[in-house]
Amino acid sequence: MKTTARIPRSGRLARTAAATAALCILGGAGSAYAYWASTGIGSGAAANGTMQTVTVDALIAGDTPQNSLIPGGTADVVLRASNPNPYVVTVIGVAANGAVTADAGHAGCTTTGVTFTPLLPQPVTIQPNSSVLFTFPGAASMSTASLSACQGAQFRVPVTLEVRK
């Protein structure tokens, strides 16, 4: 009778597991080598657009303030900011930018006594190709040192908006 040695099943399982592990390690190493050793050639381009100026207008028809400026008093200031850009912009600040002057019909109003103190409580978003109305309550004030020639004048208050994309 011929006897054959039988390999226990657990040994076969161990060899199969070892062979599988070796293949996984070699396969993984080959993939890792291919990943790190590969090269490529290409090109790319990008352009940075220029933001168009956000404009500010005052007293457009229908944008009139609710009160008038008198010596020793304050009045609202109404501004309309227009965004000509194809993307949203955010106004994060408003500041006076120069001397307040009276309209041409009040040439004798050389000392206006008018100051502008805006308060923007939070940033304001302006949608693309649209405008937003700002009302600054009590932001214009007129001292009692204003000349009598300033009665009935409209004042030009130069402002600067700080805008971010």
Task: Describe the protein.
With 165 residues, the protein is of the alpha+beta class. The chain is 18% helix and 31% strand. The chain is built from one helix and nine strands. It has one helix at residues 9-37; strands spanning 55-58, 74-83, 89-96, 101-102, 114-116, 124-126, 130-142, 155-156, 159-164. A four-stranded antiparallel β-sheet has the order 1-2-7-5, with no helix packed on it. The protein has a three-stranded antiparallel β-sheet with strand order 6-3-9, with no helix packed on it. The longest helix is centred in the first third of the chain and has 29 residues, at 9-37. The N and C termini lie far apart (93 Å). The mean pLDDT is 77.
What's the quick description here?
With 165 residues, the protein is α+β, with helices and mostly antiparallel strands.
Features:
165 residues; alpha+beta; four-stranded antiparallel sheet; three-stranded antiparallel sheet; elongated
Produce the secondary structure layout.
Elements: H1 9-37, E1 55-58, E2 74-83, E3 89-96, E4 101-102, E5 114-116, E6 124-126, E7 130-142, E8 155-156, E9 159-164
Antiparallel strand pairs: 1-2, 2-7, 3-6, 3-9, 4-8, 5-7
